Amino acid sequence: MDERDWTILMELYEKKNITKTAQSLYISQPTLTKRIQHIEQEYKVSIINRGTKGVQFTPQGEYLAKCAKEMIKKLQNIKETVLNMEEEVTGTLRLGVSNYIATHKLPGLLKQFQVKFPKVNYKVTTGWSQEVFTQAYHRDVQIGIVRGDYQWPESKLLLFEEYICITSTQKIELEDLPSLPRIDYETDTLLLQIIDNWWSRTFSQPPLIGMEVDKGVTCKEMVMNGLGYGILPSALIDDHPELYTIYLTDEQGKPLVRKTWLFYHEDSLKIKVINEFVRFIEQSNVSKMK
C-alpha cells in the first residue's frame, strides 16, 4: 500500500460513502473501487460492506482505517527528513490557520516567504481557532496560528493583539445597550466567553439580539449599514474610522484584548522549512501585513 491507499482508507472511514470519498479525492468511483479491491487483495480480507445506509467497515477494515492516519504521518515524516538533508529549503509546509488570519494576513505572509524560499510548497487548512489548536497539538499541522489564549504546552510566538470593542454608525451610550439591537455572529468559544463575561459584569439583563449572522466580517457589514451595533475585535474595524467605537475594559479598567499566537513544537525546528518559517515570522510585522 502506498500513501494514496492510506488516504483513501482514512477518507472513506470518515465519510462512509463511496461517492463523497471519490469527490473529495478528485477521482472517479470506478478508480476508487479498484483501489479498495487492490487493498483487499493485498491483505486477503474484505475491508468494507456496502449497504443502503452507505459503507460499513469490517473489523479488519476498521483496524486498517485506524492505522491510516498514523501511516500517513510516518510517510510525511520520512519525506520531510529526506528533504531536510538537502542544502536548499524545500518541502511542504503544513499550516493550520484561523479563518480571519487565513483571509486577511496569511496571503501576504506566504507571498513574502515564497520570495525567499521559492521551492517550498504549502498545505493550508482553515477553521475556528479551537480546531486549529487541536490540529497543531496532535501534529496534524506543523504550524498553528490561532486567536485567543489557549493553553499551549510548547513553543509559541505572539503575533499581535487587538482590542474588543462596541461599534456602531451612530454614537451610543453604554447604559443604553440592553435596549438597542445587537448583531450577533458565530465565533470562537474564547471570544464568546470574553464578551459574555463582560456583559454579565456590566448588565443585569440579556442583550437584545436583533440579528444573527455567520461571522464577524458579516456583522461589520451589517453594522456599517446601520442595522444595529456589534461587539467586534478591532482588527475588523481599524480601516473604518467613521464608525463610532467604545473599547471594552475589565474590572480594573484595562482594555480587553484578544491575542493571536503562532504555535509550534520545539523539536520540529530540526526541519529546515519549519525553522525558516518561524524565524521569518519573528522578523515580520504581521499586524501590518495584508
The CATH topology of the largest domain corresponds to D-Maltodextrin-Binding Protein, domain 2
CATH secondary-structure class of the largest domain: Alpha Beta
How many E strands? 11
Low-pLDDT stretches are none
Provide the helix percentage: 40-55%
Share of residues in strands: 15-25%
What structural class is derived from the secondary structure elements? alpha/beta
Give the SSE order as H and E letters.
Answer: HHHEEHEHHEHEEEHEHEEEH
Largest sheet: 7 strands, mixed
Assembly type of the shown chains?
A: single chain
The overall pLDDT average reads 89
Q: How many distinct helices?
A: 10
Per CATH, the superfamily of the largest domain is Periplasmic binding protein-like II
Protein name: Transcriptional regulator
Pfam family, one: LysR_substrate
Keywords: DNA-binding, Transcription, Transcription regulation
Family: Belongs to the LysR transcriptional regulatory family.
